[in-house]
Here is the input.
Amino acid sequence: MSISFIGSTLSVSAAKPATEDASGYGALTWTEVGKVVSIGELGDEAEDIAFDVLKTGRKNHVNGVKDIGDVPVTIEYDVSDAGQVIITAGNNGNTTHSFRITDTDGENWYFYGLIANQKMMARESGQYKGQSFVMRGQSGLVKA
Here is the structure.
């Protein structure tokens, strides 16, 4: 069944889970980030470890360290939104935050990491007042 992502939400917790599973993330206190416009692609990317085999003259590949990387988020600016206040307070610091993305079908995706690179949108005639930032993953993804 196909779904639309309309209605999906992003929530943040200013804590790391005690355990990296659904129950650990479920025990955290969550604050929804209001007025989310978009959340970037979510998933691990494996480092490519490449080496040449002399006998065959071919390059071989194995998958190495996995990384969620930077997940970009765009929001409509709202100075009074509690979730946006947490994002701003954590921006470019080294405090670990947890993130929950809830899709419209009820699936939750959890991970933890840092908040970085918060910027105001360009001030142009056809632009709304918004911000962007990245969630810099430091854990694996947990689906619940």
The mean pLDDT is 97. The longest helix spans residues 82-90. DSSP finds two helices and ten strands in the chain.
